[in-house]
Design brief:
The complex is a heterodimer. Chain A is mostly helical. Chain A has one domain (7-223): MetI-like (MetI-like fold, Orthogonal Bundle), CATH 1.10.3720.10. In chain A, 77% of the residues lie in helices and 0% in strands. Chain A is built from eight helices and no strands. Chain B is built from eight helices and no strands. The termini of chain B are far apart. The chains are: A mainly alpha, B mainly alpha. Chains A and B meet through helix 3, helix 6, helix 7 and helix 8 of A and helix 2, helix 3, helix 7 and helix 8 of B.
Chain lengths: 224, 219
């Protein structure tokens, strides 16, 4: 049995440090997800309005955000805006800004899709039954739209958590950076640490994302 | 804007873009083959391998490419599996993309429906013929938009290759920012070059989607 370098994790506080790094990555994800869900829902509902300027603006926003790799967006905000506008951004703030911009764009598209997937006769039947506008939305449209929306937005959440791993590239000390530090520090006494430690990081990410994906799949099957 | 800086560094970016495209397309090609293989295994209900595919798909979809690359590039050599950075890039992209491609194939095949399959059998077509002439053409038409979306997704994912010291576009941009401090110009070039790679694929995707919708396969 070759040395897999897993023993490093049992030394001192190494495993706890790794989990702490995961915590930082997750904190960035959770803040961005909360902002994205709220703003994305508002923008998604607004996109239902027949306002050409608003529609064109939203379209542009969505396309611009979607075509660029998230890492490029991170670079633009972290290196670009700080240089151009002369402000000071921590890597973590820059990440939250970028992931919120991106998440909001994706979420608004999901909300728009869910709302427009409700066929017109649902609105008409509800009105024919004498429901008021707010009642139509509250009792007829929303319950159906939310069922379509929730599995998709849970998928978006796992995508956002996975994307958070990129913050390493703009110098945020998260799980992967901690892993590098641990491997560097034990280079002499545990030369194979890279295998065990990166494998552990891989498994930890999987353990975070997998249950969420399973939940999304279950909900999709039940409500789909 | 320092135009001289931009014009002197265009060749660097061009080289980096070629590398990105090269690894991107190689990775996507392997991903498509891997996805097809997975779907064949699932479709034909091959025992044992089916379970392996299911585990692979979950692992690949629930972990970030950056972590997969770190494990392949820095972790695997420790147990004797050593490859160069480019091969790692292709392998990582294929590992990530394979599951997405498999899902695209699967949704296409499922959308064709059992009625088509049964009708084909009742017309006297063999299993191979059914797959070849009835299921695959329709499944491909249905899942084509998903394929293009996956390709764009994977091309965008190539941006993390700089982490395993491949001199791609991100690497070049970061290098130039560090060397000359011409942040605005370096980032502008980065955006332009990514647009040059991604816009054509994205446009091709929307054209393809419109055409296939006219063709009205399946539905």
């Amino acid at each position: 049995m070759p040395d897999l370098g897993l023993d490093v994790l049992l030394k001192g506080k190494n495993f706890a440090r790794l989990l702490g790094g995961l915590g930082i990555a997750l904190r960035i994800s959770v803040i961005s997800i909360l902002i994205s869900v709220v703003l994305g829902t508002v923008l998604g509902v607004l996109r239902q309005r027949e306002n050409l300027i608003l529609k064109a603006f939203m379209r542009l926003y969505l396309e611009v955000i979607r075509i660029m790799p998230q890492l490029v967006l991170l670079f633009l905000v972290y290196f670009g805006t700080t240089r151009s506008f002369g402000w000071d951004l921590s890597g973590e703030t820059a990440s939250v800004i970028v992931f919120s911009l991106w998440g909001t764009a994706e979420m608004s598209d999901l909300v728009r899709g869910a709302l427009s997937s409700i066929p017109g006769h649902q609105y008409e039947s509800a009105e024919a039954l004498g429901l008021r506008k707010t009642q139509v939305y509250l009792y007829v449209v929303l319950p159906q739209a939310v069922r379509r929306l929730i599995p998709l937005s849970i998928n978006l959440i796992t995508r956002m958590i996975k994307t958070t791993s990129l913050v390493l590239m703009i110098g945020v000390v998260e799980i992967l950076k901690v892993a590098q530090q641990i491997i560097e520090a034990n280079r002499m006494n545990s030369p194979n640490a890279a295998f065990g430690v990166y494998l552990t990081v891989f498994v930890l990410y999987f353990l975070v994302c997998w249950p969420i994906s399973v939940l999304a799949g279950k909900l999709e099957k039940r409500w789909g | 804007m320092d135009w001289e800086f931009i014009s002197t560094n265009i060749p660097l970016y061009r080289e980096a873009a070629v590398l990105t495209v090269k690894i991107g397309f190689a990775g996507i090609l392997v991903a498509i083959l891997l996805g097809l293989l997975c779907e064949v295994i699932v479709y034909c209900r091959i025992p044992v391998l089916r379970r392996v595919v299911a585990v692979y798909i979950e692992l690949s979809r629930n972990t970030p490419l950056l972590i997969q690359l770190f494990f392949i590039y820095y972790g695997l050599p420790k147990i004797g599996i050593r490859t160069d950075a480019q091969a790692c890039g292709v392998a990582g992209l294929a590992f990530l993309g394979g599951s997405y491609m498999a899902e695209a194939f699967r949704s296409g095949v499922e959308a064709v429906g059992a009625a088509q399959e049964e009708s084909a059998y009742s017309l006297g077509l063999s299993r191979m013929q059914t797959v070849r002439y009835v299921i695959l053409p329709q499944a491909f038409a249905i899942s084509a938009p998903a394929f293009v979306a996956n390709e764009i997704f994977l091309l965008k994912e190539t941006s993390v290759f700089s982490a395993i010291s491949l001199m791609d576009l991100m690497f070049t941009a970061k290098d130039l920012i560090g060397l000359y401090y011409n942040t605005t110009e370096s980032l502008a070039l980065l955006v332009v070059f990514y647009l040059l790679i991604l816009l054509p694929v994205s446009l091709l995707g929307s054209v393809l989607e419109r055409r296939l919708r006219y063709a009205g396969f399946g539905t």
